[in-house]
Design goal:
By secondary structure, the chain is mostly beta strands. The protein has helices at residues 2-18, 67-70, and strands at residues 24-30, 43-51, 54-61, 77-83, 92-100, 104-112, 117-123, 131-135, 138-144, 153-163, 171-176, 185-186. Strand 6 (104-112) and strand 7 (117-123) form a beta hairpin. It binds calcium ion.
Length: 189
C-alpha cells in the first residue's frame, strides 16, 4: 500500500516538474491583401509564438488549400527567417513546402543557414514533437526550441515564395512584416 502511494506521489511530482510554465511571448499582425498576384501566395496575417517548450509559427493566406493539392511546384514555400542573434540576418529557416516521393507530402523543415542542413523536420498528418498543419487558409509549423538552438529570444519574418513555374521563372515573394523582422520575441523562463 505504501509503495503504491509513493509511486503515485512520484508520478504527480514528475507531472508537475515536466509541465511547462504557462508563459509565452508572441507577435502577430496583419499583412496587406493583394500585394502579390497569387491569392494562395498572399500572406494576410502572421503570428509567431515563443513558448518555453517550442516555437509555433502561423500564417494565413488570402486563399487557402492543401499544399499537396494546390501548390504548383517544389520551389513554392512558406519560409520563416529566424534571427537568433548577431550577426544581422537569419541563422535558421523554417520552411513549409511539398516534397515528392511515393506521394506528394507537405513537410516542415528547419534549416541551419550556415550549412543549409535540415536540423528538424515534420510531416503532414504525422504527430510528434514537431508538427506541420494546414487548415483552410492557416499554415502552421511548430517545433522544439532546440531546433533553433533554444535562444532566449528571436526575431522572425514570414515570406511566401510563390514560383509560378512560368518560362523565365517568375517568383513572387510576400513579406510579413513588410518592413523587416519582428522585434525580439522573448520567452519567459
Ligand atoms: Ca500580403
Amino acid at each position: 500500500m505504501r509503495r503504491v502511494l509513493l509511486a503515485s506521489v512520484v508520478g504527480l511530482l514528475s507531472i508537475l516538474l515536466l509541465s511547462p510554465p504557462a508563459s509565452a511571448a508572441e507577435t502577430q499582425a496583419t499583412d496587406p491583401v493583394n500585394d502579390v498576384p497569387y491569392d494562395r501566395g498572399d500572406l494576410i496575417f502572421y503570428r509567431a509564438i515563443h513558448r518555453s517548450a517550442n516555437v509555433d509559427l502561423r500564417v494565413r493566406t488570402e486563399r487557402g488549400g492543401n499544399p499537396e493539392m494546390v501548390w504548383p511546384n517544389l520551389n513554392t514555400r512558406i519560409r520563416w527567417r529566424i534571427d537568433v542573434g548577431p550577426p544581422a540576418g537569419p541563422e535558421y529557416y523554417a520552411d513549409i513546402q511539398i516534397a515528392r516521393g511515393v506521394d506528394v507530402v507537405m513537410l516542415g523543415r528547419v534549416r541551419r543557414v550556415s550549412d543549409n542542413q535540415v536540423v528538424c523536420q515534420a510531416q503532414n498528418h504525422v504527430s510528434g514533437n514537431n508538427i506541420v498543419i494546414q487548415t483552410q487558409n492557416v499554415y502552421r509549423f511548430q517545433f522544439l526550441r532546440g531546433c533553433i538552438g533554444a535562444p532566449n529570444s528571436f526575431r522572425a519574418r514570414a515570406t511566401f515564395i510563390w514560383d509560378n513555374a512560368a518560362p523565365g521563372g517568375t517568383t513572387y515573394i510576400d513579406y510579413a512584416p513588410n518592413g523587416g523582422p519582428t522585434a525580439p520575441i522573448t520567452s519567459s523562463p
